[in-house]
From TrEMBL:
Keyword Transport: yes
Entry keywords, A to Z: Ion transport, NAD, Potassium, Potassium transport, Transport
Record domain RCK N-terminal: where: 1-117
Lineage: Bacteria, Bacillati, Actinomycetota, Actinomycetes, Pseudonocardiales
Entry's Gene Ontology molecular function annotations: potassium ion transmembrane transporter activity
Domain RCK C-terminal: 137-218
Keyword NAD recorded: yes
SUPFAM superfamilies found in the cross-reference section: NAD(P)-binding Rossmann-fold domains, TrkA C-terminal domain-like
Protein name: Trk system potassium uptake protein TrkA
Organism: Saccharopolyspora thermophila
Family annotation (Pfam families): TrkA_C, TrkA_N
GO cellular component terms attached to this protein's record: plasma membrane
Domain of life: Bacteria
Length: 222
């Protein structure tokens, strides 16, 4: 994919390295001369410009990018970049970093944001996952609350051990998208067996999350 990242600080550079390892084409847009360091990531394309300015985004050819990531340390900048990317350049996918959790409510489709990433929320989710095996943990909100990425780790006592993926009777608005097991990422097939300790990732709407947890624990929904 062709990806543009607004903000080449520590976060932006880290994202760029990860994407380059996946053979994606990356453009870093940075307005701060101190952060403009092409030698650190020579495989990326660099641009010294203000991503909040329409002319800069036109020069960057944003209309040809598959994804834009607004990764600066300023929520106002990230919102402006997201809005311009979506409304002026029709970028298919816009991901925005939320620095202050109090601003999270702004990062919606109205501002052009497809996926809002809040580090505090994700860290809190990881803590909950670590201490509450068997509980459903919401990792990320997709499409402004229309769906969530949620995770459930099967406890040692799970009644689902040895049963098959096809035995999970999921509601219509839920899908099992991946199983993490022993460092492996498994794309679930109908005949795949389930094991204690499996981290199961679902995409689901909020109103069926309780049903998912009940199904995973093999009990009737409350």
């Amino acid at each position: 994919m062709r990806i543009a990242i607004a903000g080449a600080g520590a976060v932006g550079q880290s994202i760029a390295r990860e994407l380059l390892e996946g053979d994606h084409e990356v453009l870093l847009i940075e307005r701060n001369v101190q952060n403009y360091q092409p030698k650190r990531i020579p495989a990326a394309e660099w641009m010294l410009a203000d991503a909040c300015e329409l002319a800069s985004l036109e020069e960057a050819g944003l209309e040809s990018r598959d994804v834009v990531i607004a990764a600066t340390g300023d929520d106002k900048v990230n919102l402006v970049v997201s809005l311009l990317s979506k409304t002026e350049f029709a970028v298919r996918r816009v991901v925005a970093r939320v620095n202050d959790p109090r601003n999270e409510w702004l990062f919606t489709e109205a501002w052009g944001v497809d996926v809002a990433v809040s580090t505090p929320r994700m860290l809190a989710a990881m803590v909950e996952e670590a201490v509450n095996v068997g509980d459903l943990v919401r990792l990320m909100t997709l499409r402004q609350g229309q769906a969530n990425l949620v995770e459930v780790t099967l406890p040692e006592s799970t009644p689902l051990a040895g049963r098959r993926v096809r035995d999970l009777r999921l509601p219509p608005d839920a899908a099992l998208v991946s199983i993490l097991r022993g460092g492996r990422v498994i794309v679930p097939q109908a005949d795949d067996p389930l094991e204690a300790g499996d981290e199961m990732l679902f995409v689901a709407t909020s109103d069926v999350e309780a049903q998912i947890q009940a199904i995973v624990h093999d009990r009737p929904p409350e």
